[in-house]
Amino acid sequence: MTEKANILSSIYFTFFEKYLRKLYDMIMDLQGKVSTLDGALREKTKELEEAQAEIRRLKKLPKKPKIEPSKLDEPQEKPEEKGAKKRPGSEKKRKKSSLEIHQKKVVVAKAIPSDWVLKGHQPYVIQDMIVRANNIEYQREIWESPDGSQTVVAALPLHLQGKQFGGTLQTYILHQYYECCVSQPLIYTTLKDYGIQISKGQISNILIAGKSAFHEEKASLLSKAIELKEELRTDDTGARHRFKNGYCNCINSDLFTYFTTSYSKSRINFLEILRVNHTNYELNEAALAYITKADLPSKYVQILQACYEAGSGSFKDKPTLEAYFKSNGWTAKYALRTITEALLIGAIIAHGFDEQTLIHSDGAGQFNLFVHGLCWKHAERPLIKLVGYNEHQQILFEDKKKAFWSLYQDLKAYKLKPDKQRIALLEQQFDDLCEPVLNFASLNQVLVELKAKKNKLLLVLYRPKASLHNNDSERDIREYAKRRKISAGTRSENGKKARDTFLSLKKTCRKLGISFWDYLQDRLTYTNHILPLSLIMEQQSMTANT
Could you please report the per-residue DSSP string of 366-424? Predict the structure, then answer.
């Protein structure tokens, strides 16, 4: 009887074990399906949010708040360490130690007895301004020859010739509009209050007309950055022009900022910006390498190869290139786009662009050129959007986030003090971060996508000057987000060009430690005490590299 009971007990135990295993497998399978469906739901939710955002834009409703800012750069300090160190920049400073004194006045004490002795003065500084009209009438001498046949009138100072308004007033208008974001109607009202007789049209002309010298200086910024082989950080945002939606591209580094507005945000547009003031297209080895990598059909490659070997691969402008396409009967959009991109790459390299130049972006495809680095804070976003549906998933999720933040902090430390012996360790740390986990499909999908970006995210290990995030580009380009709230956009080519130019110069002056007011005053009065900004960029670059 006991033996029979043992046999039955063993059978029941085996049955229950198989049943429990099957039940466990079913639960794990359901969790995997839930995670997969969750990923699909998030994609659909994203599409729905984009559609809702477009509807809100068209209805001119307030925008929904964006995602929370990244916590990657927040110090991972322990509770007992909080408050031990002050926030950078919070230290007390002597604000008036370098203050220029323009006028001194003696304050006489009252009701002082006659036998008292004056022991000195106690300084007390009051900061004030003089804001008023300052109209100047120039009495120009007129000289006449003895016979009365010739007359000479004394010439005005060079910066006033052909002008109705002085350099300081022009500086004020430009500074108010481009630095302080004051609208033209408010500038007009303010000047009328100051007693300045000026029309709205004259204010508009001061803001956008006759600015060729400024446009040339702006163009020199990007040319100099390319010459200095600066890391080019880039981003783009919406910018309206002539009542149509356009895009503003921002290229910047620690030394300059360069804005360009157009109706396109394609790779062709980005390459045209890098071409600066040139209009040509060049078929050279760099262009052929790009075409080969793009895997175009052989008929295109053969014709282009023959064209290159014949030495006829230079096209002076877009109409010339389009005529070449037409003569070959090429109409396929993908092929024409790829060939145009290749020829633009050939052109910018022919003009001195180094193929090893680092392009840093948030991951947008149009910027994926040359040596391309990616932003860690954009890479973090898919991770922090995930949700754990049980305790097991929540633990895995938190562990991966901590590993991500820890690796980022280690990379920041490496950037400050590069050590080649740590490269293998940090690469292994990245591989460990991307290792898949059990029963969390949506997290594994994020990790797979993260691992595919390994070389671009770890570029700092081999190029320590490479950026880890794209915050600088986003800070610079926020200027256009502010502009969209103030103005509906530009309406003329002069207005668009002036906006790009002066915002570029303003941001560049700030990075070079130059007062934008002083810069405008210097250029508008032809004083030229401030060196060309491109030369200052070169000087500061040399100082930083020594």
Answer: GG--SEEEE-HHHHHHHHHT---SSHHHHHHHHHHHHHHHHHHHHHHHHHHS--GGGHH
pLDDT at site 13:
63
pLDDT digits (tens, 9 = 90+) for 257-276: 999 999 999 999 999 999 99
Annotated domain spans of the chain: 279-350, 376-461
The alpha carbon of residue 511 and the mean position of all alpha carbons in its chain are separated, in whole angstroms, by: 13
| Token code pair at residue 202 | 């004259």
Residue 390's closest CA among 340, 437, 345, 427? 437
Residues of the chain with pLDDT under 50: 78-80, 82
State the Cα–Cα distance between residues 357 and 276, nearest whole angstrom. Answer: 16
Q: How much is the pLDDT for 253?
A: 94
* Report field, pTM of the whole predicted structure over 0.90: no
What SS3 state is found at 441? helix
Residue type, 526: Y
Nearest to 519 by CA among 250, 224, 222, 214: 214
- pLDDT at position 15 is 66
d(CA 450, CA 424): 18
Q: Indicate the pairing of strand 358-361 with strand 371-374.
A: parallel
pLDDT for the residue 12? 64
Query: Could you tell me if 361 and 466 are in contact, meaning their C-beta atoms sit under 8 angstroms apart?
Result: no
Query: CA-to-CA distance for 497 and 492, rounded, in angstroms?
Result: 9
The first and second tokens of residue 381, run together, are 């976003």
